Amino acid sequence: MHRPRALSIYDIGRTPMYASQYDQRFSYCLHVPEDYSADSGKVYSLAVLVHGTERDVQTYRDAFADFAEANDCVVLVPLFPVGIPDPGEFDGYKYLRHGDIRFDLILLAMVEEVTGTYRVDSRRFLLFGFSGGGHFAHRFLYLHPERVRAVTIGAPGAVTLLDESLPWPAGIGGTLETLGRRVDPSALRETAVHLLIGAEDTQTRAIRVRTGHPAWIPGVNDEGVPRTRRMLALKHSLERHGLAVRYDVVPGVGHHGPSLFGRVKNFFTHVLTADARAPSR
Length: 281
Prior knowledge:
By secondary structure, this protein is α/β, with parallel strands linked by helices. It has seven helices and eleven strands. Strands 1, 2, 3, 4, 5, 8, 9, 10 and 11 form a nine-stranded mixed β-sheet that branches. The chain has a two-stranded antiparallel ribbon with strand order 6-7.
């Protein structure tokens, strides 16, 4: 952790985009509660919001400003740009690794940078991702459950099942060799899990992983389309391993993240409130 730097007026509230010092090809923005003061001893929670393929990071950040202010929570939104390392590469971050780039480690480095600047409890943070971010969120949980306090997984186009017989990313087979960590399903039970999707999220365009795509492996499409069916498959897979899953299907909503943000904020607020009321260990 580096020594905290002096804060300016631009570091409070709705911040600019910051280049990650771990890898300056990537950046992030924050919402820091307006009452944040370098002279106070208050420690803030941390929520990480991961964008979909459209990369609309500031929309995500601004939509959660009210949540941040009401819950003493710093909001961090990373940007994983299109075209790193290859022109037109949209999907690498969704699977945590593309070539020699580890997107999960990039996020953890961003969290450490924020911890070095602000008083945040980053040991276990809230995590939300929609669409492409939903891809990232559940796979990040698998590899780093000790860092995730609660997760909302929103409408990913493909899911990774807790199945050792299927190779990553269809299942969790071979993660020690390919990602350096073995997935322990029992470790996920300490995280509050929320699956979230619109009831009308039934279009199938762009979600089938085709032969020749870097993420294609036998079985990656086996849970079928549309996203609503894939989410049910993920729910059943998690529950088979003893996870308590909140499953939220929102009537009248298609594949539109902002229409679901209120459900995410309600879930996170419930988690923070329950944690605050729990007796100290």
